């Protein structure tokens, strides 16, 4: 089997590929939208799909077209299969939402900058919400951060897949600096102790949440 081009995912037909450009926190600018539209038209890409992780997938391209399409996009690859951070999902928070009590977008951007490109035992997904409604679905993400009037609550070990799991709350009412620091400790512990391809949900089930809390708090 021919090796897939960089950043491309072979599709069901075994002939065409999909790519997922990085769109941190699902934020798009006029320049990004114009570039996407230009690429989709130029390369006659048949499917453009908004994913559950606030990303845009371009689907149905030939293998030999993938590299020049990446060049035309001028965007970083949004990793979708590798053992690393796949995305940081975030709600609008205090930027525009009338219910927001914490700035989820800037916190999400800070976290993405810190962990994009870092290897992990398995894929890692973040959900960062600016209020207790948790629109970024942090309770079913590997790491979830939920804003409250007193600060941020940190959750770990969630999964929305076939073996769904609600994340455990590690700590509550943290300052922004505290939640960033505790997230780093959690992920360091996970990297050091998880088995290869063991998602955080399965890691928590194997090791025990109290053992993890004792190690990081």
Distance between the termini: 47 Å
Q: What does the average pLDDT come to?
A: 94
Helix content: 25-40%
Could you describe the largest sheet, including whether it forms a barrel? Answer: 5 strands, mixed
Q: How many helical elements? A: 6
Kindly state the number of beta strands: 9
Overall geometry comes to globular
Low-confidence regions: none
Please write the string of helix (H) and strand (E) elements.
Answer: EEHEEHEHEEEEHHH
Strands of the biggest beta sheet: in what spatial order? Answer: 5-6-7-8-9
**Rg, Cα atoms, Å:** 18 Å
Strand content: 15-25%
Topology:
Layout lengths: L7 E3 L5 E4 L10 H13 L4 E4 L5 E7 L3 H8 L11 E6 L13 H12 L8 E6 L13 E6 L2 E6 L11 E7 L1 H18 L6 H8 L1 H8 L1
Parallel strand pairs: 5-6, 6-7
Antiparallel strand pairs: 1-2, 2-4, 3-4, 7-8, 8-9
Quick synopsis:
The protein has 217 residues and is an alpha+beta fold. 31% of the residues lie in helices and 23% in strands.
């Amino acid at each position: 089997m021919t090796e897939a081009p960089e950043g491309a995912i072979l599709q069901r037909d075994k002939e065409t590929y999909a790519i997922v450009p990085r769109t941190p926190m699902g934020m798009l600018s006029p320049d990004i939208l114009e570039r996407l539209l230009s690429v989709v038209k130029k390369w006659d890409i048949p499917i453009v799909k908004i994913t559950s992780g606030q990303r845009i997938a371009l689907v149905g391209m030939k293998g030999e077209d993938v590299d020049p399409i990446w060049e035309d996009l001028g965007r970083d690859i949004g990793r979708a299969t590798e053992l690393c951070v796949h995305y940081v999902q975030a709600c609008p928070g205090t930027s525009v939402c009338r219910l927001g009590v914490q700035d989820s977008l800037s916190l999400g951007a800070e976290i993405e900058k810190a962990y994009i490109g870092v290897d992990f035992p398995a894929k890692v997904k973040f959900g960062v919400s600016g209020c207790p409604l948790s629109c970024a679905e942090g309770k079913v993400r590997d790491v979830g951060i939920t804003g409250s009037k007193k600060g941020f609550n940190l959750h770990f070990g969630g999964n929305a897949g076939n073996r769904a799991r609600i994340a455990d709350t590690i700590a509550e009412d943290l300052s922004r600096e505290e939640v960033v620091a505790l997230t780093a400790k959690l992920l360091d512990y996970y990297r050091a102790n998880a088995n290869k391809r063991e998602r955080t949900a399965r890691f928590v089930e194997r090791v025990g949440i109290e053992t993890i809390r004792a190690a990081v708090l």
